[in-house]
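hey so u asked for the seq, here:
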Amino acid sequence: MHKQKIGWVIGFNLVIVVVELLFGWVSNSYALISDALHNFGDIISLVVTYMTLYKSYSANKNATLFNIFILYLSMFYIIYEAIGKLQNPLEVDATYMIIVGTIALVANALSAYMLSKMHISHCTSHQHQHDNIHSAYLHMFSDALISFGVVVGGVVIALYDVYMVDSVLTIVFSLYIMWHSYPMLTKAIR
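ran it, structure tokens below
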């Protein structure tokens, strides 16, 4: 039952990643792209959580470290591009930001809800699984908040044509993603 729910959450998030990358590129929105990369990082966490249900967690530590390293490189590149866009703002299609951000918000909120309903016995043998599911829930909840920020940014751009909002959101989201991923990075290194 838990495996199936986590599988659905992984599937939702894969769709979000593809849609946000596609429409982020089409609309010139690095905020959507950084949210997609964050969601991809969370997919990695969800896959590790899924693997813990099969008791294969230790075999995936190196993959986790590699994926977090790639996530950090992506965030540094996105910040670099966002700073360039701050100096020379490009027109951003706010409609895509609002629509895709709303879809991501709903999917992330649904994913967080599904994970919040997964209860595992608190006996010692299941504590690690419970902690991983709770961690995955927190990731999905933070993704929902970032998606909400993308929607708000899109509304501000649509109303006031202030395209630098996308770059500012991109930098803020990227720094948040790196900060949020840091404990997982240090844990994987250890």
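The CA atoms of residues 1 and 74 lie 34 Å apart. The first helix runs from residue 2 to 27.
lmk if thats what u needed
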